[in-house]
Specification:
This protein has 13 helices and 11 strands. The protein has about 325 residues and is of the alpha+beta class. It starts with a helix and ends with a helix. The model is unreliable at about 1-20 and about 310-315 (pLDDT under 50).
């Protein structure tokens, strides 16, 4: 029987060859079980990449092409996909050069340990195991499921405490009960992190992630990658979208935010623990990325936490 046009196109997409993916370092806050965030377009993570964490990805604006494993397809708002551990993926929006989109997608990321702990505590959660297992090929949910997932993910962006967990369970319940999702990558496709994690840039990114608290010199990283400093600088920016120093500073400030939320260390202690060698530079970089000082950021987080306590006190007060 002659193959239809759609079948031929799908088979062609399966054969598409894409360059080795880059490793993305996913920083889940120490006092949280998963990471929920949004980003616009263009954005530094919009590249062919992978990470050990699972990901649920919802497009909220723009159209374009998306790539999951060896699959290539078209996306539009409402496109909801779950990716398994180390499955390479990317969404490329059709946006005119020079134009920026404030929010392109909502993203939930979590690791296998979170699922294991949840199942151990709540055996009922085991019903999502089939979804997670199938996500190794990437799962595309129906537009109706995408529309139902958006308000849940959007509330999760600002939710605190147990409310985050309630919303997470609601999202997984939605996915588990939805119409059977479509597997995107071909049945023969297997993510192989041992192969593409060995690429030069991923050696460098993994080294940075493990040594944030140490002094990181671009000259030493260039030597690690077997390149001259100028060649490494161009290579690093091409793969990450930002210069080396800016990339390292972003990771360090993100780590500093996690430590500030814990409230256990002074700002000076945090400054040195995340790898800055003087307080003034730490304050300057923090202000540049967060648009406020570390002390003010911590104060706002304390205010945020206190509001939850005050709300509970009001709820418990006799009527």
């Amino acid at each position: 029987m002659q193959a239809t046009h759609d079948e031929t196109t799908r088979k062609d997409s399966r054969r598409a060859k894409i360059d080795q993916p880059d490793l993305e370092l996913v920083a889940v806050p120490r006092d949280e079980s998963f990471k929920v965030w949004s980003h616009g377009y263009p954005y530094r993570t919009v590249r062919w990449h992978f990470h050990p964490e699972y990901e649920i990805h919802l497009i909220t604006s723009t159209t374009g092409k998306y790539f999951v494993g060896d699959y290539i397809g078209n996306f539009q708002p409402g496109n909801l996909v779950m990716m398994g551990s180390n499955l390479p993926h990317n969404w490329v929006s059709s946006v005119p050069a020079g134009e920026r989109v404030d929010e392109r997608c909502l993203v939930l990321q979590f690791d296998a340990a979170f699922i294991a702990r949840t199942i151990e505590a709540f055996p009922e959660f085991r019903r999502v195991e089939a979804l997670l297992d199938a996500s190794r090929w990437g799962l595309l949910f129906t537009p109706e499921t995408g529309a139902a997932a958006e308000p849940i993910l959007r509330e999760m962006l600002s939710a605190q405490g147990l409310r985050r967990i309630i919303l997470c369970i609601a999202l997984f319940d939605l996915l588990a009960q939805s119409a059977e999702p479509v597997k995107l990558a071909s049945a023969a496709y297997r993510a192989d992190p041992s192969r593409y994690a060995g690429t030069r840039i991923n050696h460098v990114l993994a080294f940075i992630g493990k040594n944030l608290s140490q002094e990181l010199r671009e000259t030493e990283l260039a030597e690690l990658s077997g390149q001259s400093v100028s060649a490494f600088s161009r290579y690093f920016r091409r793969h990450t979208g930002v210069p080396f120093v800016q990339y390292v500073n972003r990771l360090r400030i993100n780590l500093a935010c996690q430590l500030l939320m814990s409230g256990e260390l002074t700002i000076t202690e945090i400054c040195y623990q995340v790898g800055f060698n003087n307080l003034s530079n730490f304050n300057r970089q923090f202000l540049l990325l967060k648009e406020m000082s570390p002390s003010r950021w911590r104060t706002y987080q304390q205010l945020n936490a206190a509001s939850a306590t005050e709300s509970a006190d009001v709820a418990e007060a006799p009527g």
